[in-house]
Design a protein that fits this description.
With about 230 residues, this protein is α+β, with helices and mostly antiparallel strands. It has a single domain, classed as Beta Barrel (Porin), CATH 2.40.160. It contains 5 helices and 12 strands.
Length: about 230
């Protein structure tokens, strides 16, 4: 599996190092969010890696809702429990919760299906900045703090009518930003297709903090820095 090099399993626990998390974010997701850098002070494991590990472990259910409740740091020992009928909660060895997955409907445990859907979703998700977020911020005349550009995964929902998929693709159908003071709630809706046929839909929600008035020059510099990081990788 392509995930093997991005985590370490020891008995019943799974750990992700800074190096593994950063490599996944950059090489698989094309995500150069600085909170996934090896030397980041506020480092966290990408939510998309946790999503992929969940599909790898439990397969793909027709209806899945992921709620992220904590940032996973370097080497945190996560326990992926046995699959239950309605909800799975990922905790660490100290019983702190990080992720819950509500699921229902049929389940496909074929690793190829999990692998393909994980890859396509992660590729889609990695395009969020700057391609989607920058136009949204400009539209609402707000921006994140360029000195501490923090965008945090909050939840993700995916509904698939047909689970026997071989060549999934995700396409953005709607993006919106709701502003509450200095906090921004981002919702991205997408369609899931397989070999050109729509087979499902979903949405991803994120939180942007420390919002301030939009400044084109500051955003341009942030985008340029992001592009430079990507280019130098």
């Amino acid at each position: 599996m392509f995930l093997d090099k991005f985590h370490t399993q020891q008995g019943q626990t799974i750990q992700v190092s800074r190096e593994q998390a950063s490599d996944f974010a950059k090489s698989i997701a094309g995500d150069f969010n600085p909170i996934h850098d090896v030397d980041a002070k506020r480092f966290c494991v990408p939510g998309d890696l946790l999503f992929s590990l969940v599909l790898n472990k439990y397969g793909v259910s027709q209806h899945m809702h992921f709620t992220f409740s904590g940032m996973v740091g370097d080497g945190v020992e996560l326990i992926f429990p046995e699959m239950t009928d309605d909800e799975i909660v990922i905790k660490d060895v100290a019983d702190k919760s990080y992720l819950s997955i509500a699921h229902s409907g049929d389940n496909n445990a074929n690793p190829d299906v999990s692998d393909n859907l994980s890859r396509r979703y992660v590729e889609f998700s990695g395009q969020t900045f700057p391609h989607i977020l920058v136009p949204l911020m400009a539209k609402h005349n707000v921006m994140i703090n360029p000195a501490r550009p923090l965008v945090i995964y909050e939840s993700m929902t995916i509904n698939i009518d047909e689970l026997d998929i071989s060549n999934p693709e995700l396409t953005l159908t709607e993006s919106k930003l709701d502003i509450q003071g200095k906090r921004g709630n981002v919702t991205l809706k997408f369609a899931v297709s397989d070999n050109g046929k729509i087979v499902g839909s979903g949405e991803k929600t994120m939180v942007m903090s420390g919002l301030r008035e939009f400044e084109q020059g500051a955003i341009d510099q942030l985008v340029n820095d992001y592009a430079a990081s990507k280019q130098s990788y």
